[in-house]
# Entry
Amino acid sequence: MNRKELNPDSSPQAAFGARLRKSREDRGWTQEELAHRMGYSSTHISSVETGRKFPTLRLARSADRVFGTGDTLDTFERQWREIRHGVLLEGFPEYVGYEGRAVEIRLYEIGIVPGLLQTPDYARVLADSAVRRGAITPEQAAERTSFLAERQEALVRFRPPMMLVVMDESCIRRPVGGQEVMGAQLDRLTEFAELPNTVLQIAPFDMGERRTFDLPMNLLTLSDLSVVAYAESQLQGHLERETTSVLPMLTAYHQLQAEALSQAASVAMIKEARKGTP
# Structure
């Protein structure tokens, strides 16, 4: 019998697989027996144990049920969530927790449409591009798009947050996924602008030096009126809750809104960009 040895320290995914294997072997079960108990094929269990397949939330919860770890502090589900967040920048998972409770969301984005406004196809193209570059695995790409869908669904509630979005003009000029994908994405933006709880503005190229941010910026107002800020570079994200640091960012966002196009002019620019797409 060939047995692939795993180094649990090599990656969070390998650690999950090694733990699953050890838990199984401690009980004297074969992969076939564990697969039967968990509702998976033995091939699938083998792939997870050896790190070839990314574990899913369903599998993690099934493992907690079978091994009786669901009521402990160190569940398989907790470990799965650590793996999932491993493809996200530092600070972002915590930011998302605030995002789901915010009463007002202010976004500024450069180059790509903000995640909360992305269509599934647009988001998938970006994730697949990261896979081709070797930045993430196909399994992580699937988790990334699934995670985005969950964020978007969290904002569809009885009292949705007020959303104020300023996008650099590059967001609508940069083609992503071909004409069909980009056309549908631009349509999504005009639909977003029509909602009663949204304001959408474009920061045009000719704004020049009057643009107040050089990087994307997210600002959340919570129910107690406190404000949380999140910004990220290519490799690092930073969550800020200190009032003395956040208030200048809020002021800069107000200045950005004042210089950006009105919503009507922004929608007109988006519709103009939409021409030529199917």
About this structure: The chain has two domains: 12-85, 92-116+156-274.
